[in-house]
Amino acid sequence: MKKILLAATVTAFFAACSDDSSSSAPNDSSVSSIYELGACNSSNRGETKYVQDKDDNYVCIGGEWMAEKDASAPKSSNSGGYADAITSSDSGENPKEEIKEPAKQEVSVYTTARTTLTINLLKYEQLKAMDEKDKEDGEPRISFTIKSSKDGIDEMDPVKTTTINLGNDVGYWFGSKEVSVLLPKGINIIQVCPKFVDEDAFFDDEEYTSTKCYAINDVGQKIDKAIKQTDDGSAYYTMDWEVTVTY
After folding, report:
1. Which end of the chain is more exposed for a tag (fewer CB within 10 A), N or C?
2. What is the pLDDT of residues 206-240, one digit of tens each?
3. Is residue 242 part of a domain?
């Protein structure tokens, strides 16, 4: 009978110890509130701490301290996260604010100051004989008239460039020759009008200009950009050039 009582006493003692050891508040990993949990990052992923004022264990999962009771709960569609979750950066530092770049200021289509327009002649090719006796190649002399305006209504005085002399007996030319003019402030439309003359030392010079002009719109937004143009409106020649407008 004594042996039976002794066995029952020992069994009850170990059962009590077992109940105590199942407590969810280990002394060496307990904090008073969620604000004392510290960082949750890769170095302590999976760590569990007991939070006294919540009376619950919190586990470090995916950069967040999360209540164990919510660890298996689905994310809320409204909040986008778990209840009672404390987010921390992976490095242990406070999350950085997103730095937004300032919006780019829109550039005006009108020029804001006087500009320099430069024409760079790139190529000239004669297509048929000029009106000269027994001569195939001509003596090309090329110039440009620049017309500018604001919205095509407020027209400025036309400006003429100097003349580019490509030499005598020239049927084809390739290279670079520049002429420049100054243009007024506040314009947004430019028209480049080429003039071609076949110079003749013995007869009157003959003009074979195509009479076409080539427009550049929104000039204020095309500063420092080389714009290629081609004059192919004449039966006698074709030529290419680039236009650049600078402040």
Report:
1. N
2. 889 999 999 999 999 999 999 999 999 999 999 99
3. yes
Q: Which amino acid is at 121?
A: L
CATH number at residue 126: 2.60.40.150
Examine the domain organization and report whether 142 and 65 are in the same domain: no
Please give the structure tokens belonging to residue 193.
Answer: 């009008």
Q: How far apart are CA 159 and CA 179, in angstroms?
A: 12
Within-domain flag for 107: no
Domain assignment of residue 152, given as a range: 115-246
Report the domain count for the chain: 2
Reference 86, options 62, 69, 50; nearest CA is 62
Can you tell me the distance from the alpha carbon of 195 to that of 180, in angstroms, rounded to the nearest whole number? 15
Q: What is the pLDDT of residues 53-106, one digit of tens each?
A: 888 888 888 788 888 877 655 554 444 444 455 554 444 455 455 556 666 678
